[in-house]
Design goal:
Chain C: Keywords: Cell membrane, Membrane, Transmembrane, Transmembrane helix, Transport. Chain C: GO terms for molecular function: transmembrane transporter activity. Chain C: It comes from Cellulomonas xylanilytica. Chain C: It is found in: Cell membrane. The complex is a heterotrimer of chains A (327), B (256) and C (339). With 327 residues, chain A is an alpha/beta fold. Chain A has 2 domains: 192 residues, Nitrogenase molybdenum iron protein domain (Rossmann fold), CATH 3.40.50.1980; 120 residues, 3-Layer(aba) Sandwich (Rossmann fold). Helices cover 39% and strands 18% of the residues of chain A. Chain A has 13 helices and 13 strands. Chain B has 256 residues and is an alpha/beta fold. Helices cover 30% and strands 27% of the residues of chain B. Chain B has a 6-stranded mixed β-sheet with strand order 6-7-8-3-9-10, sandwiched between helices. Chain B has a 4-stranded antiparallel β-sheet with strand order 2-1-4-5, with helices on one face. In chain B, strand 7, helix 6 and strand 8 form a beta-alpha-beta unit. Chain B starts with a strand and ends in a 7-residue tail after the last strand. Chain C contains 14 helices and no strands. The longest helix of chain C has 35 residues. Chain C is globular and about 65 Å long. The two termini of chain C are 25 Å apart. At the A-C interface, helix 10 of A face helix 3 and helix 7 of C.
């Protein structure tokens, strides 16, 4: 708490009142709030110019990070479909998301997407917008559909965050909020996250960590400039692959065994659970020798919280708590 | 060794391409297998080689059906030279001739008669080619090397399918003279009637899978047979030096 | 065969090269271990009286590097054997398990059982996949009774594309998230997952099948001028072809089960080696197997060290090395026989 800046505290206090209003009168709320504060927005999104002249009202989200961003901003009434969920939404969004139809378990095809007649598609990965995915961005634009990619997921040089920071995450929250004409909700959310981060206790000693995302033969791990690095940094963990200039990287078990991290962060996804990863680590004769495996020093992070988005701050807090429990 | 064709026949694609051939090519001599294209020469050679089971009759070597002989022992008694011998393997001549020793090799690939390949090369007058790559040889040299390969099998019966194809005249003559003088029972499918007349002790004339005539060329190669089997007119002359028949073909008549 | 190096000398040289390669490769890796430490780790496991090494260093040497290097040796040897035998049986210098679709077929079989979740059956399924792909390729390629090299390669290409597409489909359909990396490992080949079990599967397959093949060397020689010529030399052509093809499919299945579909080893090694040994299989097969092992160990050592801490699928390395070598062999004039 001592590190929280005073002006943000004020903002939180002021905006809490505003944010509460949709709950009391849900049917009229979006129109009221958006018309009040919307101003046309033009952003350079991963190299594609995105122009929004009115707040989108028929939104499809692809991937959990995009879905949860809108839910966190209280924009569920503008959402007509979600796709490619990496896992269940956090408890606090469950009620809001229950009414939104799930379009597809994976990336929806272009026709499936067009059939919903959305005015705005928000994707967590750049690759979701391809001819064999939801459709090419230029093509969708010509059809009158605005496309938007999580800026933290841009891959082009100059757009890819290098490294990703919580400021960039906050920028995305503000940018999305501006597009929907709810800037005040962004400030509230950002302030909440700052407060969460400020409360995190750093471990006393240097604690090295492996961010184990997926892979059996060749582990796919968190590297030096992406969300895993940002989250571990904030939780006071030293990433053993911090010097690899990428968000994630494929590596070999030899490098992991040689580094012998103090803890292992396991990414928990529906298709590749933390439990399964523990099984792999314990059955592989080499990794079973790791100190963290022998002492069961595991930390778990949900998949969707491990990509840049609104859940990163909570992930930091959770890692920190889990670490404290391990002792 | 006695070779007997006892009413042998087989179908390919439902048609009797060889149909009930009875013949006894003379032992130790060169027999010519004649007939127009499609008469069944190659199929008959495969039947005689035991590579194709006959659907009727049999080919007998010393009274034993050839297709019932164990493969290895058959390969030691019968050698076949195909019309086309092509290989994608970069073999030397010596290696090609050693293939003829396969029926004699042990499980570990050793040849009980280490000099057999060299003897075959020398006897086929191909010793000087031994270290040459097979692919670098001329057509005549290749046939000679294939003969050496066949001789390395030490066969009692040698079967040649159009051995003079693609050879120039001198290579044709020397090849057939060589085969005739081997003293091995040999059956050669031949295209060129004059070559057959000059070198063969015996000829078998096939027409449409049937045996049209068999015997010494002087008795068999008559204007009447040539008209019947090949549909050509010819006079039969006598070679001024050897006394063998020489066939002088007429020009085709316009309405023929 | 004249003036060719004697076979025992070639085999001894090959064995020596393989042993040296294994010993050197096991000391190379991203983790900074000394040669003495590596030696002590191995010696310790062979129950020799030496000082111990730190637990994790021992795990790197004994559980990661050594099984991986030995698997590479066995897989390389197996692929080279499979390539040499297929080239002879199909009379096609371009034949190898990868080009004729066997590897892709085996990958498909492996991936299919992995999806179902019965990984114990993986080598069996890989074998079945390889065999099916082989039958499909030969059935497509056969016109009448002849098997032309060109048609065989085209048929192999079709089958291999089909199997690769089916593999990708199975993975696409059954998985979420970032499992496309697993697809790459199956389609491009990787030795990153090698364990002592892999060593056992690939090693036993190579030794058993290799013995069968070397004992069939004479029969393979007989195919040099084609089926009729082989039959006239006393070979049971159909039985030999199907037996040996099945054996090769078995070998390919075992290789793919532990490493995915690694290309070019089977294509290149037999050609590279035959200039030294000649085409006689009794000489060619053992030397090709030993060189294949040495080659794949080095290719994999490159794959796991060049971009440290990242890894390349070893199939990319074999293709990067294999294609120029193949081009060189083609241009050296051997092409004349490869119509």
């Amino acid at each position: 708490m001592p590190r929280t800046r005073p002006y943000l505290l004020t903002a939180v206090a002021a905006l809490t009142l505003v944010a509460c209003s949709p709950q009391s009168s849900p049917e009229a709320a979006p129109a009221e709030t958006t018309s009040a504060t919307f101003a046309p927005v033009t952003v350079d999104n991963c190299g594609t110019e995105v122009e929004v002249t009115a707040p989108p009202t028929k939104v499809v989200t692809i991937k959990s990070t995009a879905t949860e961003m809108l839910l966190a901003l209280g924009l569920q009434d503008a959402m007509i479909g979600t796709a490619f969920a990496d896992g269940p939404v956090p408890e606090q969004y469950e009620a809001a998301s229950a009414q939104i139809p799930v379009v597809s378990e994976k990336v929806p095809g272009q026709e499936a997407l067009l059939g919903l007649a959305p005015d705005f598609v928000y994707a967590g990965w750049e690759s979701n917008f391809s001819a064999d995915g939801a459709g090419d961005r230029a093509v969708l634009h010509d059809l009158g559909i605005t496309t938007y990619v999580s800026p933290a997921a841009c891959k082009e040089a100059g757009y890819m965050p290098d490294p990703l920071t919580f400021d960039e995450v906050a920028d995305e929250i503000r940018e999305v909020a501006a597009i929907f004409g709810v800037p005040e909700r962004a400030e509230e959310l950002v302030a909440e996250q700052q407060a969460t981060l400020a409360a995190v206790q750093q471990p006393a000693d240097e604690t090295t960590a492996l961010w184990y995302s997926s892979g059996t033969d060749s582990p796919y791990v968190g590297a030096g400039i992406g969300a895993p690095q940002m989250i571990m940094d904030a939780a006071g963990l030293t990433n053993i692959f911090a010097d690899v200039h990428d968000s994630w990287t494929s590596t070999g078990w030899e490098q992991v065994v040689a580094a012998d991290p103090d803890v292992i962060v396991l990414v928990d996804a529906a298709w590749n659970t933390a439990e399964k990863k523990i099984g792999l680590l314990e059955s592989n004769p080499a990794t079973s020798q790791l100190t963290a495996v022998q002492e069961k020093r595991y930390l778990v992070v949900p998949f969707a919280a491990g990509e840049a988005g609104v859940r990163n701050a909570d992930a930091v807090a959770s890692l920190s708590d889990q670490l404290a429990e391990l002792g | 060794m006695d070779l007997t064709l006892d009413g042998v026949g087989t179908r390919l694609g439902g048609r009797w391409v060889v149909d009930g051939i009875d013949a006894t090519p003379p032992a130790g001599h060169l027999t010519g297998l004649l007939g127009p294209n499609g008469a069944g020469k190659t199929t008959l050679l495969r039947l005689v080689a035991g590579l194709l089971p006959p659907e009727k009759g049999a080919v007998l070597i010393d009274d034993a059906p050839v297709h019932e002989l164990p493969r290895r022992s058959r390969a030691r008694r019968v050698a076949l030279l195909e019309q086309e011998s092509t290989s994608t393997v970069p073999l030397t001549v010596h290696e090609v001739v050693s293939l003829g020793r396969i029926p004699y090799r042990s499980l570990w690939g050793t040849d009980p008669d280490a000099t057999a390949v060299d003897r075959a090369l020398v006897s086929a007058q191909a010793g000087h080619l031994a270290d040459r790559p097979w692919s670098s040889l001329s057509g005549g040299e290749r046939q000679r090397v294939q003969i050496a390969r066949a001789l390395a099998q030490e066969p009692e019966l040698l079967l040649l399918d159009e051995p003079t194809n693609h050879l120039d005249v001198s290579a044709q003559l020397s090849l057939l003279a060589f085969v005739r003088d081997l003293g091995t029972t040999t059956v050669a499918a031949l295209h060129d009637l004059n070559l057959a007349a000059a070198f063969c002790e015996h000829v078998l004339v096939l027409a449409d899978g049937h045996l049209a005539a068999a015997g010494h060329p002087r008795e068999v190669l008559t204007p009447e047979l040539l008209r019947r089997v090949y549909g050509v007119e010819a006079d039969i002359l006598q070679h001024p030096r050897t006394g063998r028949p020489v066939i002088a073909f007429h020009e085709p008549t316009r309405d023929a | 065969m004249r003036a060719r190096t004697p076979l025992p000398l070639l085999v001894l040289a090959g064995l020596a090269a393989l042993v040296v390669t294994v010993l050197v490769a096991v000391t190379i890796g991203p983790a900074d271990l000394g040669v003495a430490e590596v030696a002590r780790s191995i010696a310790g496991h062979l129950r020799l009286p030496v000082d111990g090494v730190p637990r994790l260093h021992d795990a790197i040497v004994w559980d990661l590097r050594l099984p991986r290097v030995l698997t590479a040796a066995a897989v390389g040897a197996g692929l080279a054997l499979a390539g040499a035998v297929m080239q002879s049986l199909t009379r096609n210098p371009l034949a190898d398990p990868y080009l004729l679709g066997l590897s892709s077929g085996a990958s498909l079989g492996a991936v299919a059982v992995l999806v179902v979740g019965v990984s114990l059956l993986l080598p069996v399924a890989a074998f079945a996949g390889a065999l099916l792909a082989l039958v499909a390729t030969l059935a497509l390629a056969r016109s009448g009774s002849t098997l032309s090299p060109g048609r065989t390669v085209l048929a192999g290409l079709a089958v291999s594309q089909m199997a690769a597409a089916a593999t990708s489909f199975v993975i696409f359909w059954s998985s979420t998230g970032d499992s496309y990396r697993e697809i790459l490992n199956w389609l491009l080949g990787s030795l990153a997952g090698a364990t002592w079990t892999s060593v056992a599967i690939a090693g036993v397959a190579v030794v058993v099948v290799g013995t069968v093949l070397v004992l069939s060397a004479t029969r393979l020689d007989a195919f040099a001028f084609g089926d009729t010529s082989a039959a006239a030399l006393g070979i049971d052509v159909d039985r030999t072809r199907w037996t040996l093809m099945t054996v090769v499919a078995l070998l390919t299945g075992a290789m793919v089960a532990v490493s995915g579909a690694i290309g070019f080893v089977g294509l290149i090694l037999p050609h590279a080696v035959s200039s030294l040994t000649g085409p006689a299989h009794r000489r060619l097969l053992p030397v090709a197997a030993l060189s294949g092992g040495v080659f794949l160990i080095w290719a994999d050592t490159l794959a796991r060290t060049v971009f440290d801490p990242r890894e390349l699928p070893v199939g990319i390395v074999t293709a990067l090395i294999g294609v120029p070598v193949f081009a060189f062999l083609l241009r050296r004039g051997k092409g004349s026989a490869w119509t």
